[in-house]
Amino acid sequence: MDSRLWPTSAARTPDGALTIGGADVRDLVAQYGSPLFVFDELQVRQSARNYIKAFSAEDISTTVYYAGKAFLTTTIARWLHEEGLGIDVCSAGELETALRADVDASRILFHGNNKSVEELTRAVEVGVGRIAVDSLIEIERLNLIASAAGIVQQVYIRLTVGVEAHTHDFMATAHEDQKFGLSISSGMAMAAVDAVQAASHLSLAGLHSHIGSQIFDASGFEVATHRVIDFAVQVRDRHGFAVSELDVGGGMGIAYIDSDNPLDVAQMGKAILDIVRTECARVNLPIPRLAVEPGRAIIGSAGITVYEVGTIKPVEIDSGHTRTYISVDGGMSDNIRTALYDAQYTVALASRESSGVQVQSRIVGKHCESGDIVVRDLHLSADIQPGDLLAVAATGAYCRALASNYNYLPRPAVVSVRDGKPTVLLRRETLTEVLALDPGFLAD
Length: 444
Description:
By secondary structure, the chain is of the alpha/beta class. It folds into 2 domains: 11-40 and 301-439, Lyase, Ornithine Decarboxylase, Chain A, domain 1 (Beta Barrel); 111-294, TIM Barrel (Alpha-Beta Barrel). It is built from 12 helices and 21 strands. It has helices at residues 25-32, 41-54, 74-82, 92-100, 117-126, 136-149, 188-198, 219-239, 265-282, 296-299, 337-341, 431-435, and strands at residues 11-12, 18-20, 23-24, 36-40, 62-67, 86-89, 108-110, 130-133, 153-160, 182-183, 202-209, 245-247, 289-292, 303-318, 321-328, 347-349, 358-364, 373-381, 389-392, 413-418, 421-426. Strands 4, 14, 15, 16, 17, 18, 19, 20 and 21 form a 9-stranded mixed β-sheet that branches. It has an 8-stranded parallel barrel with strand order 5-6-7-8-9-11-12-13, surrounded by 6 helices. Helix 2 (41-54) runs parallel beside helix 9 (265-282), helix 5 packs across helix 6 (136-149) and helix 6 (136-149) runs parallel beside helix 7 (188-198). It is globular and about 70 Å long. It starts with 10 loop residues before the first strand and ends in a 9-residue tail after the last helix.
């Protein structure tokens, strides 16, 4: 199986069933139900090590933060902290998950465009290492909270650098007309620097830029870093000090289908380090400490989703041509990315071997939406039948994390496998739990 798309441990049994980490997916589904998310623990850990290695250099110190928004549980946070990564969080829930996993708070970075007073207070209380401020209001708010706590909080200023990343519009985060960051061109970014410098209980640790997600090459990072370094020079000239840290964000892409060809982590790391060196040399600025925030690139290809086939329906789409609609027991409640981003995926029959002729197919979910599509266009064997298991590759990031209870479907379980032994990362929700928020279902 293509290791760019599937977990590195993915293999087949003699009768064609898929195994992950030495565990047969048929056995996993029998034990934990379907749909089911399955992760390869060793691949997650290896991906973390690969990032640390790729961004290690004698002349540049780098902190690698795992972007928890991709998918976070206490077990995953513990794995990555053990491998040397910090954790990037953007909500109270993500923060508490990292803390419960015994992640050192000083190695936590807190993001978000609208952090509440309660979230900021908790972050200051537990000693979060860096908070990326996203507005002038937040700077004022955080300074008051830090003052009340009697500490000086280290902050990044999140910049909007005007870079159009080559990705889906909803995954691009550095163009001007969007909710994140403070614009360099409008003067808001410098106003934020001035405000932090004037704040008695804040200290400017560094500058932050994030250009988007699912990025395949370093060209966007080159343009963004050029503009951030130019801004750092303006800060130096205005305030008399060199910015000591630069966070270039995350967004490194992975392969979802055969034609996807992202840079591997070693290539991307080298390219970004070279960009930082070149840009700092251009303006005679000391090389700052670097930070990067991979999420999808750590967890995405290490996870798959296994579904059970329910119904199969051939549909005539034009004269003489049909498409086979294969309905599975999940859908947009466990993978909204196809509907949201027009995402593409690779699918394989996971429960047996098949030699049937390949026919034009579409994998759809069970929700009452015509847009409830898991994989829009693919070719699968004509002998697919109810009860078969299908596996969708590279669903480790932004699938279970974005899951919902639409149509009151309980969210799937998540397990990891190592040396054939499964571990529950998240147990399956029950229908009772889903309905429990409705007072009409509460016991008298």
